[in-house]
Amino acid sequence: MTSLSTKAKPLDNRIALVAGATRGAGRGIARALGEAGATVYCTGRSSRAGTIDPKRPETIEETAELVSGEGGRGIAVRVDHTEETAVEQLVDQIHEDEGRLDILVNDIWGGDSLTEWGKSFWEVDVRAGFTMMERAIHTHIITSRHAVPLMLESDRTAESGRGLVVEITDGAFYGYRGQLFYDLCKIAVIRLAYAMSVELEDQPITAVALTPGFLRSEAVLDHFGVTAETWRDAIEKDRHFEHSETPLLVGRTIAALAADPEVHQWSGQALSSWQLSRHYDVKDEDGGQPHWDEHLDDAIEEILASDSPSAADVMLLEVRAPQIDFDETRAEQRERIASFLELRGRRHDAGDSS
After folding, report:
1. Domain boundary residue among 290, 314, 330?
2. Per-residue pLDDT tens digits for 91-133
3. HEC letters along 147-207
4. pTM of the prediction?
């Protein structure tokens, strides 16, 4: 097990940009970086000056205040990352105010309302899919294109440790995620991290992709009708929710990566919050270390042996099947899952709900 620095604030004097910090994983990541002492630029489109999603109340200003409340310095900047000029202006602002950038997290998504689950690729709304790709892929490319040069020229990068670029995705696997455009977006950012790692090999910057587990985002809590404090009440509806994690956990694993002088060992890889939390001995907000992958493995055989699986159990198998598509050591188990789902008239590629 690798130990973190004993320094109370290992990211003191580090400058971070979390693109897509309004809510969910982005907010948790910004908070955790602040907790570690970083200055965090929190960007997004939902602001107190005007929100783009009337169904969601979260704003970038709230996130910045949470960062400062954790002991860091939060700075909210309203940015539409599909607009290249706006991203250039953001990076110019960071350059002028801070003189450098050490950590970039690309967490922009905005595709939930555009994902047409249950539709085959010949049935989907192509324009909606292209909009999803613009929000979830183009924004990452634009932001990296303009932020990484500042990271490369930062005078203090070598002093403060290797720079870090993190691409947030859904699932550290290469199987199909159940919907064409959703799959393209989530696998594309994994490939972006790998491609950037190749080009950055001789530079003091490490690029990785990272997925959270079953995330207790604001939207997921609302879906279950619970709060961050009462989330355990939802376990009655879905027993697998017991193994969920807060957005802070994935943030703390990123803070651990950024503080690790040997971070380059992870270069180009698709990582997970549960994997890194064990490696760095990082705990979630309640002190736990949920491991979504272990839970899936433990639950599969139990579900396959069940005569009356719950809807949540069947969905879990639908989630797991594509995750082991390219693992030939799991071929027999994959066939058993497929047969189980076929008997119940369910598709085995219904999307990753984690």
Report:
1. 290
2. 999 999 999 999 999 999 999 999 999 999 999 999 999 999 9
3. HHHHHHHCCCHHHHCCEEEEEECCCCCCCCCCCHHHHHHHHHHHHHHHHHHHHCCCCCEEE
4. 0.91
